[in-house]
Write a structure and sequence with these properties.
The chain is α+β, with helices and mostly antiparallel strands and 148 residues long. It has a single domain, classed as DNA Polymerase III, subunit A, domain 2 (DNA Polymerase III, Chain A, domain 2, Roll). It is built from three helices and nine strands; from the N terminus they run βαβββββαβββα. A five-stranded antiparallel β-sheet has the order 5-1-7-8-9. The protein has a four-stranded antiparallel β-sheet with strand order 4-3-2-6. β2 and β3 form a beta hairpin. The longest helix has 11 residues. It is globular. Keywords: Cytoplasm, DNA replication, DNA-binding, DNA-directed DNA polymerase, Nucleotidyltransferase, Transferase. It comes from Caldilineaceae bacterium SB0675_bin_29. This is DNA polymerase III subunit beta. One of its GO terms (molecular function) is 3'-5' exonuclease activity.
Length: 148
Amino acid sequence: MPAGREAKVRVSCFQENLSKGLSIVGRAVSSRSTLPVLGNILLEAKDDKLRLAATNLEIGVNCWIGARIEDEGAITVPARLLTEFVNSLPPDKIEMELSVRTQTLHLRCGNFDVNIKGIDAQEFPVIPTVDNGDGPEETAEALEGRTI
């Protein structure tokens, strides 16, 4: 990257998909915690998918949605703020741009535009995974109506 040029992560996805994913992972967000990052949702852009993740250190939920990824990267943003904003948007394409230097997520959809200050993704706890495939597996649609 040329000197003086800021690293930016660019992602686009549909409002309906992002809203659905946020409602799924939002169930694991900690409402009261001494760690501010537990009130956030991790957004990780990688391999043409946007990973959404949340944890309260007892449970963790991951959800992947299809997205157009121009540059890979990650950030955590306040769950409630992001979810309420995305749910208020029209069903259209959402353009997201992350400024790595300032840890700010810029969202644009139609005439709507917002900047959300985030926390570095490095501070987000690792959610354990089952490597041998013996764990339970459900689709997002099957889990959508259930509460955890």
